[in-house]
Here is the input.
Amino acid sequence: MGNQRNLVRTLGLGYVIIFVIANIIGSGVYKKIAPMAAELHSSVWILLAWIVGGIITLFGALSNAEVAGLLADTGGEFVYFKKIYNRFFAFLYGWSLFTVIQTATISSLAYVFAQSLNSIVPIPELFPSLQHFTVGGVFFPFQDFGVKLTAILLILLLTSLNISGLKSGAGASKAILLLVCAGLLIIVFFGLSSTVSRPANFMDVRDLTSGTVSLSSFYTAMLAAFWAYQGWVSVGFIGGEIKNPYRNIPKGIVMGVFVVIFTYLLVNVTYLSLLSIPQLEQIHVSGNQIAAVEAVRSFWGTGGVLFISLLILVTTLGCTNASILTGARPYYAMARDRLFFSGIGKLNKTNVPGNSLLWQGIWASILVLSGTFDQLTDMIIFAVFIFYGATSLGVFILRRKMPDVHRPYKVWGYPYVPAIFILFCIGLFFNTILTRPREAAIGMTLILSGIPVYLFLQRRNSKADANENNHEME
Here is the structure.
């Protein structure tokens, strides 16, 4: 009977907008201005990178919204790619989600949560004698093991919450998001009205013509911005649980992304008005400092540090929860389509894909033991923009394949908006290979490791079909 269960449509437009915002606002709004300062060395250029990153994200979201409006179902891009391209490309996307895009996102967010908790309540060091134990000279699984174990416990706790039912997970996201927005508004209000003197070169437009920023460094800085904007596409994963998805998914994506762009600009202007570029560059070099914490420290002292640390804790908790909730749905859709291991395609008694959530949680926990936060996030952005570009290309393909089908939403600015986004994705792909070769290589390896898995599944399905035919003939 478990296999015959179907997902229940319980979520309206309000929850769609909440999921979009909750999946986006995570660690990037607090951390990523520091690596951007290290690349661009100018507050004007940093703000411009946030604006361009937001516009490009919006172009991608608008293009995605047309495809989602046409093909909305549980699994998001996996379902779209099957229709636009073929089963192999759809599988490769789902495999990439499982091996790196979604699971490494969950790992990164949980790790920042644990770091923030550690700054409030010091987490004891575990197995200090194994600190220098290494796997291939690349991974140090027992370094900061106390923090890593805390991150793993968070992933497993939130996974079990979501296994217990969709509404409990969705309700947690809503409550946390309200706290996060209130906290960010407090930082903006008190930060911009504080008596702390503005940095010497704050918003100096002459920096735009100084010639110190190259196209490559601007692209590299935007890797950081795109991590902060990452996650808007995840709402498509729960298409089978959204009421009137053809209308609510496109509308929710566009409204949610607009809210986030506006919020990020306000928050980052606040940071830049409190911290100089050399201070931000130093924060980046230190590796264990968070820009938002230092900005609030400048006008509120140690009490402010406690406030911002708690806010980061709540934010990353909310974003980790939202990422876990939405992330497990594509693997469920793949398994139902015989493109993943069959047990993952079953719903539990609360009508959620419990096995899919469990395996996602286990692999995300393993990834916590691997790379650094910035390495993981650059790898995610490299991998995900390959597929974002493929979705936007799908707008052109579907207009040709299905010209007469009703489209609840048509992308604004067609054909220019999807075309600009596709060109940008191509540029990001090659620039990351040049400037972040290690992250690009790991990302590509994990994506391409899906090829032998696909061939194995195809062979297994062929054998199963052949056996079934033989039984019928008998």
